[in-house]
Amino acid sequence: MTDRYLSVAAAGLHEIEIRRSRFLCAVAPVEQEAAAREAIAARRRAEPAARHHCHAFVLGPDGRTQRSSDDGEPAGTAGVPMLEVLRRRELTDTVAVVSRHFGGVLLGAGGLIRAYGQAVSETVDVAGVVEYRRLRLFDIEVDYTRAGRLENDLRASAYAVRETRFEAEAHFEVGVLPGEEPRFTAWLAEATGGSAEAVELGEDWVRG
């Protein structure tokens, strides 16, 4: 079981032009195949004049689900090279769609492979990459007199602050690496003079 994975940080859109053909690539973070399919359909609606809407996506922390389509381009010249970029960049929970507007010049198999791969690679650079880690989550409750300093200490530490809430007391949802729980609770007690209450929430994927 993996304890971390990479995904695109945000949706991104980028265009390259090769021998008068325009390749518009969109990438987006997705967690379910239905969301990936909807992203592909959205690009078809956004670029109705494009001749091809080729796609690739990888899903799951372990990258187990992998799909691609040439959408009418010669077999193996579009979807597979797009998928290879996602694999090479070790990205998952990511969909890439390239809409091609044909410019009248045939690129050949090699040219298409390079063009589709380049479009995805450059668009990933535009969107950025973020790491997700499997962490143990704690809800930390502390009174307001200590909340400001604790928040500063948390953000300066190795622990991940996932969420803050201000109710009757201040709450911080904090992610801790599995196995580091005793060290974290000792750190928290020292940082707050033993005044904070920590409730374990379970395990989840935390960004950053």
UniProtKB/TrEMBL annotation:
InterPro entries associated with the record: EFG_III/V, Impact, Impact_N, Impact_N_sf, Impact_YigZ-like, Ribosomal_Su5_D2-typ_SF, UPF0029_Impact_C
GO biological process, alphabetically ordered: regulation of translational initiation
> Mind telling me which GO cellular component terms the entry cites?
cytoplasm
All copies of the UPF0029 domain together span 140-194
Stretch list, region Disordered: 59-79
Can you tell me which family this protein belongs to? Belongs to the IMPACT family.
Q: What is this protein called?
A: Putative YigZ family protein
Native species of this protein?
Amycolatopsis jiangsuensis
Lineage of this protein's species? Bacteria, Bacillati, Actinomycetota, Actinomycetes, Pseudonocardiales
